[in-house]
């Protein structure tokens, strides 16, 4: 019986295997997901490379008759030869004649000083017009006595600086030429994070070096007047001023900065958006300088805590920390502690938006500034003037001994005399004499002036004490504190409310 059972069982197993075999054979093949091919940059480089130039700058340095100021160190000579492409002038021996064919020598011997043209640095640039206009970074040519431009075909030109703008780090050069290879400008507003880009330049003097990567972010707030393009393209010293190019072969930016702790590339680089660079270049070509507007305020961030304390729906706008005495904003009635929500109808999402909007406004024109003050919004008309260097003056802190116990905010204050108000340039407020608790933790210090608690102006020490006594210990209060010429809201929670 056993052999029969085994035989029957074997037959049934075989039948089941054959019965399922057609189903297995008929199963559809597994399809692997498609993988996008990496871009081939060779054609783009071949097409755009001739329009990228190497920029070499020199500087005239004054030497005495003994030739002091040259460099005889063999290692330094080799460094300059490899990375700058030309040797540094060696020290002149006493009594050796010097001609005037090398940047300013006068051929005289003795005690008179002479000038020597020495290498200053290298950078990159790119041609934007067939007659020889070139875009680069301002820091590439700043301080240079002479600027030399070398094309990929080894032709070298002496360049003239048409104009330079340090605030945006853009400069325009001009060389004498015709039918020069120029690059096509793209639209930096249309770039997207994640798209492929490449850089061509002269890192460490190595001409026509190509690196590639992606756009990491399209609007980084690293500059006062420009949101920069962040990439992971390898950019090193010498790449500055070179083009950032998209897959269409169009320039979308000027490589300008790197984030580095070592001095070399660490995976983060920044480029000036080409749209903004061209706007600056147009002004530089027209007048050699860039004209910007200003309204005479120093601004800061509106934090979430401050926004909640002042009744704003969310953290937005720019906090007015200081109003320039006699400036356009003071004349228009703006005050420290105001929050600018809109400029000419355009919302201010972050503080860096405001200087860009004001800077782009024509000096002499009137602008409508929407501000938040004491619980409500209002419009103020401000006349924009031309931007000039700020010269803030800091008032000295006054420190006196405390004469009473700190209040719930940890502050001991006293009334301001008329002389102190005049010196500190304030109309109201109380002087901080001593600090402890929440106020000390927030960074308030003796000599500061408290001007407002939430929406109420502080008149004197007695009223300030009454205001603090009425504060809700469960909520932070927005305390407007002035230090020197600047004012800042500091969120403080009264003692008993925790932190």
User: pLDDT average, as an integer?
Assistant: 81
Note poorly predicted spans. Answer: 1-25, 64-71, 78-86, 88-111, 389-403
Structural class designation: alpha+beta
Tell me about the largest β-sheet. Answer: 6 strands, antiparallel, barrel
Shape: elongated
- The helicity comes to 10-25%
The first-to-last residue Cα distance is: 87 Å
Strand residues, percent = 25-35%
Number of helices: 11
Quick one: how many beta strands?
A: 27
Radius of gyration over all CA atoms, rounded: 33 Å
Strand order of the largest sheet: 1-2-3-6-5-4
Notes on the protein architecture:
The chain is of the alpha+beta class. The chain contains eleven helices and 27 strands. It has helices spanning about 1-25, 40-50, 75-85, 140, 275-285, 305-310, 330, 355-360, 420-425, 435-440, 460-470; strands at about 50-65, 115-125, 135, 145-150, 155-165, 170-175, 185, 195-200, 210-220, 230, 245, 250-260, 270-275, 295, 295-300, 320-325, 340-345, 345, 365-375, 375-385, 385, 410-415, 430-435, 450-455, 455, 475-485, 485-490. The chain has a six-stranded antiparallel β-barrel. A hairpin with a 2-residue loop joins β24 and β25. The longest helix has 24 residues, at about 1-25. About 35% of the residues are buried.
């Amino acid at each position: 019986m056993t052999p029969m059972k085994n035989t029957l069982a074997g037959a049934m197993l075989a039948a089941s295997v054959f019965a399922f075999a057609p189903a297995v054979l008929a199963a559809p093949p597994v399809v692997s997901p498609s993988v996008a091919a990496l871009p081939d940059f060779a054609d783009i480089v071949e097409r755009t490379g001739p329009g990228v130039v190497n920029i070499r700058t020199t500087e005239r340095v004054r030497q005495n008759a003994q030739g002091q100021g040259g460099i005889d160190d063999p290692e330094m000579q080799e460094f300059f030869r490899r990375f700058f492409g030309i040797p540094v002038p060696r020290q002149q021996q006493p009594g050796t004649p010097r001609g005037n064919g090398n940047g300013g020598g006068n051929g005289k011997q003795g005690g008179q000083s002479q000038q020597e043209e020495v290498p200053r640095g290298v950078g990159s640039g790119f041609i934007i017009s067939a007659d020889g206009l070139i875009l680069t970074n301002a820091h590439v040519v700043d301080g240079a006595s002479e600027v030399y431009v070398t094309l990929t075909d080894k032709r070298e030109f002496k360049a003239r600086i048409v104009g330079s703008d340090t605030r945006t780090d853009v400069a325009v050069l001009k060389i004498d030429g015709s039918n020069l290879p120029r690059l096509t400008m793209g639209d930096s507003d249309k770039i997207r994070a994640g798209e492929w880009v490449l850089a061509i330049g002269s890192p460490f003097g190595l001409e026509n070096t190509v690196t590639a990567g992606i756009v990491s972010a399209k609007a980084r707030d690293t500059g006062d007047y420009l949101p920069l393009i962040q990439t992971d393209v390898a950019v090193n010293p010498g790449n500055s001023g070179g083009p950032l190019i998209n897959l269409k072969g169009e320039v979308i930016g000027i490589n300008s900065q790197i984030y580095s702790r070592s001095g070399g590339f660490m995976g983060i680089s920044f480029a000036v958006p080409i749209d903004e660079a061209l706007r600056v270049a147009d002004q530089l070509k027209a007048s050699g300088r860039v004209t910007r507007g200003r309204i005479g305020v120093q601004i800061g961030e509106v934090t979430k805590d401050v926004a909640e304390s002042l009744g704003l729906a969310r953290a937005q706008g720019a906090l007015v920390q200081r109003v320039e005495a006699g400036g356009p904003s003071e004349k228009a009635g703006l005050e420290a502690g105001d929050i600018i929500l809109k400029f000419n109808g355009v919302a201010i999402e972050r503080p860096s938006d405001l200087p860009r909007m004001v800077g782009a406004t024509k000096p002499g024109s009137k602008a409508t500034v929407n501000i938040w003050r004491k619980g409500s919004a209002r419009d103020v008309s401000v006349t924009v003037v031309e931007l000039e260097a700020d010269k803030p003056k800091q008032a000295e802190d006054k420190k006196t001994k405390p004469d009473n116990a700190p209040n719930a905010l940890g502050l001991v204050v006293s009334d301001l005399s008329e002389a102190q108000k005049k010196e500190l340039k304030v109309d109201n407020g109380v002087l901080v004499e001593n600090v402890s608790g929440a106020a000390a933790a927030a960074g308030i210090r003796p000599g500061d002036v408290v001007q407002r608690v939430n929406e109420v102006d502080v008149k004197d020490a007695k009223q300030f004490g009454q205001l603090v006594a009425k504060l809700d210990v469960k909520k932070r209060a927005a305390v407007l504190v002035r230090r020197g010429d600047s004012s800042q809201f500091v969120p403080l929670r009264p003692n008993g409310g925790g932190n």
